[in-house]
Design goal:
205 residues, 40% helix, 7-stranded antiparallel beta sheet, 7 helices, alpha+beta
């Protein structure tokens, strides 16, 4: 075997033996701790998973304390519906404080909204869906139901929410009233699936 110049076997061999002994000692001391470390890691991961599963995803009830005149349309739509609308080819959104576009003008007078936010979605082909969020009196649902049923609307009330729909000269109308909030939608050849129902869930549940 060729000898490396300057290496002294009398020093190198004991040094190697000593190093191996130190590594062996460290391994010997560490082995009993391995099951404890594994148990701790598994317990920590299990607890974290349990906590995540037990913690419900928070959902703010948007209608609570809502000032529709100052609200942005983005705040009033659930994320999935907002994405669907904004990703629609050549869709344009305009916002205003204009009143509901319903053909039932007597209903507007009866409910007398004190603040409004209207979100109008249109495309180049002339399709449109217009939704107005309006602040009304807390007894508005009863007034709205009587008025809308008298105009031939189909209405249903559940869990404090009144939902009515019909086709009028303005287009396909969907009216929702709950508490002090009135949501009026008029669509013309464009009505995303469960549009008003998804908005209602976002606002009140």
């Amino acid at each position: 075997m060729a000898r490396v110049p300057g290496r002294d076997n009398r020093i190198a061999i004991p040094a190697i033996v000593l190093s191996l002994a130190i590594v062996g000692a460290l391994v010997w001391f560490a082995v009993p701790a391995v099951p404890l470390v594994m148990a701790w890691a598994g317990g920590t991961a299990g607890n974290a998973a349990t906590m995540l599963a037990a913690t419900p995803t928070p959902h703010a009830v948007v209608a609570d304390g809502l000032n529709v005149a100052e609200a942005d349309c983005r705040e009033l739509y659930p994320t999935d519906l907002w994405n669907q609308l904004t990703w629609t080819s050549d869709a344009i959104l305009s916002q205003s404080t204009a009143g509901p576009t319903t053909a039932i003008t007597d209903l507007v007078s009866a409910l007398a909204p004190t603040a409004t936010r209207t979100c109008t979605w249109t495309d180049s082909s002339g399709q449109a869906v217009v939704t107005t969020f309006a602040t009304v009196s807390t007894d508005a649902a009863g007034i709205a139901e009587a008025s809308l049923r008298g105009q031939g609307f189909s209405c249903a009330a559940a869990d404090g929410t009144l939902e009515c729909s019909s086709t009028t000269d303005a287009g396909n109308e969907h009216q929702t009233v709950r508490g002090a909030l009135w949501v009026a939608t008029v669509s013309s050849a464009w009505y995303p699936e469960d549009y008003d129902h998804r908005i209602a869930i976002h606002l009140w549940q």
